[in-house]
Amino acid sequence: MSTGGAPFLISVKDLTLDRGGRRLVTGLALRVRSGEAFVLTGPNGSGKTTFLRALGGLVNPAAGEIERPAPEAIAFLGHADALKPGETVRDALRFWAAFQGGAEMTVEHALSRFAIAHLERRACGRLSAGQRRRVALARIVLSGRALWLLDEPAAPLDTRGRALLAEAVERHCAAGGAVIAATHVDLGWPGARTLEFGS
Amino acid sequence: MSALAALFRREFALAWAGGGGTAGPAAFNLAALALAPLAIGPAPDILLAAAPGIIAFAMLLSTLQSAERLFSEDAGDGTLELYVLSGQSFALICLVKSLAFALAVFWPAPLIALLAGIAYGMSGEASLVLALALGLAAPGLALVAGFAGALAAGLKRAGLLIALIAAPLQVPVLVFAAGAGRAAIDQTGTAGANLLLTAAFSLAALVLAPAGIAAALKARLE
């Protein structure tokens, strides 16, 4: 997945992050080129989520610089799936496609990437945790955005779900995108680089 | 623009269907209006004099009652993060969401005011003026309540905080809207001025409240 001379999608210099009065990360540097996948590992509470949120611009770093692309190029998956219980899967994804723009893929196609096309008419409140995660991942794919920031993308997923996720990530990187994912399970992404967070 | 139109449609549908939708605040409003005469007594002249105030006040309370719902779900389920990162102006998103919510939830309020006005003994014309005043007040009331809801989003007992923050800010529109109704009853000729002041409050809230809501929600995400 590495591409030598590709431009950096996001670069981080001397980053210091605080959370709740505690220093989580100091002097962190990271540069991600298009075509690369990065996995952030480390124990609970080591700052992976805060780092991802800082990359997206949701959290201001205590010190350091982040050069990030415009928000229109960032697709963010938090620990929550941002699905409304009363909305059907299709309505939810149609809304996000219209709202975020830039999608060339149809909702049906994005759902089929995660093998949940049959859930299209189901209300989000009646999905299992793993199914909800798949819908949220389908939203990421559907956004057509270059940089994916994924917080524990595979946590509730079964083996097949993880394989589909790895496939989607590989496809995205091959198409010139980049992925940064925080996780404490083995994602099984070939060619992904790892950044270990201290305890 | 089509993105914001999609947002309006979605937020309208969610507010319409979710958690009691329109029925909650409308029932609250009606209950307050049905109970007040029992407490005040049956004297028609007293009821007539009190009508504009009671009707406007009941609507104000119903906006406070529903404000907790406006942003707390989005803050809890991660929707807020996606809105912030959507690339659209976040203040505009907050404005569109608040207006969609206000339209879905408070559309019966002018109707209730019209019927209540007649039931309290106001003339049809005065009731219409009061209903119009509350229709003009609705966006302002909803946005101020939304601002308080944004400050309190995700907190326990948010309702108390919302009432403490929003009620003082809603005082001017309460005075003007009830004033329009009273002026129409007494035919003092100042009903039009009160209606304009009510509209001015809502317009000011349209400009100021979204920025405040956006700032409050962004601070919440930090």
Q: What is this structure's SSE topology?
A:
The complex is a heterodimer of chains A (199) and B (222).
Chain A (H helix, E strand, L loop, with lengths): L7 E12 L2 E12 L3 E5 L6 H9 L6 E5 L6 E4 L11 H12 L6 H7 L15 H15 L3 E5 L7 H16 L3 E5 L10 E4 L3
Helix pairs in contact in A: 2-4, 3-4, 4-5
Chain B lengths: L1 H16 L5 H18 L3 H34 L1 H6 L5 H17 L1 H12 L4 H29 L5 H29 L4 H31 L1
Can you walk through the features of this model?
The complex is a heterodimer of chains A (199) and B (222). Chain A has 199 residues and is α/β, with parallel strands linked by helices. Chain A has a single domain, classed as Rossmann fold. Chain A is 30% helix and 26% strand. In chain A, the strands form 2 sheets. In chain A, strands 5-6-7-3-8 form a 5-stranded parallel sheet, sandwiched between helices. The radius of gyration of chain A is 16 Å and the shape is globular. The model of chain A has no long low-confidence stretch (mean pLDDT 89). Chain B is mostly helical. Chain B has one domain. In chain B, 86% of the residues lie in helices and 0% in strands. Chain B has 9 helices and no strands. Classes of the chains: A alpha/beta (199), B mainly alpha (222). Chains A and B meet through helix 2 of A and helix 1, helix 3 and helix 4 of B. Chain B: This is Heme exporter protein B. Chain B: Belongs to the CcmB/CycW/HelB family. Chain B: InterPro entries: Cyt_c_biogenesis_CcmB (IPR003544), Cyt_c_CcmB_bac (IPR026031). Chain B: GO terms for molecular function: heme transmembrane transporter activity. Chain B: Keywords: Cell inner membrane, Cell membrane, Cytochrome c-type biogenesis, Membrane, Transmembrane, Transmembrane helix, Transport.
